[in-house]
Amino acid sequence: SQITTLINHKDKLKRSDKTLQAIQRVGQAVNLAVGRFVTVGEAIANENHELKEEMSVACIEARRAGETIAQLTDVASLDHPESDSHITIFTDRTGVVKAARLLLSSVTKVLVLADRIVIKQIITSRNKVLATMDQLEKVSSFQEFVQIFSQFGNEMVEFAHLTGDRQNDLKDEKKKARMAASRAVLEKCTMMLLTASKTCLRHPDCESARINKDGVFHRMRLALEQVIEIVTDSRPNGENEMAPISIYSGIKEFKNKVEGLRENLYFLSKENLSTMLEVILEHTEDFTDSAYTSHEHREHILELSKQAKMELEQLLSVWMQAQNQKTKDLMEDLEVAILKTCQCMNELKREVHSAATSLAADLLKYHMDHMVLKALKITGVEGNLEAVAEYTCKLSEQKEQLVEMCRLLRHVSGTEPLEITCIHAEDTFQVTGPQIISAAETLALHPSSKIAKENLEVFCEAWESQLSDMSTLLREINDVFEGRRGEKRVYLSLPRPGKHNANLKALKPVKLDTEEQAKIAKLGLELHLLTSDVDSETEKWEDQENEIVQHGQGMSSMAYSMYLFTRGEGLLKTTQDLFHQAEIFAAEGTKLASALHAFSDQVPDDDKPLILLEAEKMISMCKQLQITAKASVQGKSATFTKVDACILKTRNVMTLLCQLLPLCCKLLRKNKAGNGCLKPAPPWREDRIQTGTSAHTPERRAETFGIKSLENHVTNMTFLESK
C-alpha cells in the first residue's frame, strides 16, 4: 500500500513542507517494515539450513531495496529538491520504480521460501503421527499402549497447532472448508482410536472389535492424507480433483451464460446451452428417483424440467433469428425469452431447495430423540444379540436416510464451503454407522466389559454430534438461499410493510415485471459488485467487532438483498419491501456516520477533517435516500421510477462506503503503529510461541481441534495404566 502511494504520486505535486514530510515518512515506514520483515526472514534462514542460502540472498535484496527507497524519499530537509545534486523521488522516479520492483520481488521470494518451510513442518509432523500410529496398531500390551499413546497425543497436539495456523492462512474458502472437515475427522477419531484400541486389547479374539479398530485407523490415515493434499495443493498420482456439480451451481452457471447473450450473441453455441441444461436435469433425477422425495415435490420438479426444455427451445429459436437479423422486435423477443428461461430456472431451484430442506427438517426432527442408539446401548449391556441385530438394521435404515439427505442438501447448499460440509457429513454417516454396529456387537458379546461399553458411547456421541451439526448446516443453507448469505453477515432487516410507515399503507404491494427487471438489471449488478467489494474490505480489518465494520457488514447485507430483488429473488418480494429496506439501510448508514465521528477523535489532527468530511457526505446521502424511500407515489410508472431511484442512491452510498473502509483501516493501522513508525520485531521463536499459545480467543478455540482435552487426556494416561 505504501509503495503504491509512492509510485502513483503526481509529478507536479505541490511541494509544501507537509507533502515533503509525508513522502519522507512513507519512505521511512517502508524501510522500517522491510527491516522488520527481513529480521524474521533471517531468523527462519538460521533455523532451516537447507534453504539458508536462498533465504539470505532474498533478505539482502529486500533490505537493499528498502534502504534505496528511504534514500530516494529523504526530501523533507530539501527546500528545492529539483535543483539539488541529491537524487530524490522527484529527480529519479525510474529509480523508485526499480527499487519497488526489486523489493516486491524479493519479499515475494522470502514469503514463498517461508511457506515451503511451513509445508515441510506439517509434512514432518504428519509423518511422525503416521509412524506412531503404525506402532499403536501393533501393540499387544496395555503398558506399551499407554506409553506409545502418550507420545501419539503430544504429536497430535503439535499437528493440530500447525494445521490450525495453516487453515487460518488459507485464502481459498473451498480449501479452508476441506481442511476444517479433515481436522474435524481427526479430532473425533483421536478419542475413537483410544477406546477402540483399548477394547481390542481387552478382547483380542473378538472379530467385531478388530473391525471397529481397523475402521478408525483407516479413516485417520485418509484424513491425514487429505490435509497434506490441501497443504501441498496436489493429489496422489497426479489426479485432478473432480468435485461433483450441484444443481445450484449448475443453474447459476447456466443463467450467467443465458444472460450473457444480452451483451454478445456469438460467444457460445446453442449445443453448449443445451448440454448444460441436460446436465442440470440429469441431477434433478437425484430428487425424482429418491424414495424420500414427496409425490408433490416429484411432480413439480418433473413439470418444471419439462417447462425448462420448452423455454430453452424458444430462446434458441429467437437467438438464432437475432444472430441473422438484429431488429428491435427480435431483440425485445430475445430479452423476454431470456427472462422467461431464467425465471423457470429460479422456480426449479426453489422447488429442489424446498424438497431437500423439508426432507432434512423432517428427518432431523424424527431422529433427534436418538431412540435407536439408546436401544443399542441397553440391548448391548443385556447381551441380547437378537435385539442388537434388530436395532442395527434400524440404524442402517436411518444411515441410508441421512446419507440421502446429505446428497440432496449438497445440490442446494449454495456455496462451495457448504457443499464440502455436506459431503463431509455424508462420509461421516457412511463410516460411523457401521462403526456403531461393530461396537454394539462387541458389547453384546461381552456385556460386562466396561471398556466395550465406553467404546460404544464414544461412537454414539459422534453420531449425535453430527446430527446436531446438520441442524446448523440446514440453517446456513436456508440463509444463503434466502439472501442472508449466512457467512459473515451481521443481520438482515426483515421488512414488515405497512407497520413502520404511514406512507407505505397507501402503496399497493407489487412485484417488478420482467420488462422492469430487464431495465434495472445493470444497476442491480453494479450494486452486487459493490457488496463484494465492501465484504472484501471488511475482511481486511483485524478487529471484526469494530463498530465501523459491523455497520459496513450490515449495510452490505441489506444492499445484497436489494440486488436480489432486482432479479426477482430473495426475501424482498414487493416494491413496498424494497422501500422499507432502503429506509433501514439509510438508518444504518447514519449510524455508521456517527461511528466515523467517534473514530475521528482517535486519529491525528491532520487526518481528522477528511474523516469528518466523509461522514457528512454519508449523512447527506442517507437523508436523500430516506426521503426518496418515504415519498408517496401512485401508478406503475411512478413506482418503478422510485425503485430505480432507491437502487441508484443505495449504489451511491455503497460506493462511498467502499472508499471509506480502506481509508479508516489504513488510518487505524497508522495510528496503532505510531504514524507509520513500526515497533521493532520480536525474535522469530518468541513470535512463533506467542502465536502457538493464543488459544484463549474464541476463534482460536474453534480452530484447534480438541487440543486442551487431548492434552489433559495425555496427562492423565497413568489412570488408564492403573485400570
Automatic annotation (TrEMBL):
GO terms for cellular component: cytoplasm. It is found in: Cytoplasm. Its main location: cytoplasm. The keyword Cytoplasm applies. Gene3D superfamilies: Alpha-catenin/vinculin-like. One of its GO terms (biological process) is Rho protein signal transduction. GO terms for molecular function: actin filament binding. Keywords: Cytoplasm. The keyword Cytoplasm applies. It comes from the Eukaryota. Belongs to the vinculin/alpha-catenin family. This is Alpha-catulin. It comes from Oceanites oceanicus (Wilson's storm petrel). The lineage of its organism: Eukaryota, Metazoa, Chordata, Craniata, Vertebrata. The gene is Ctnnal1.
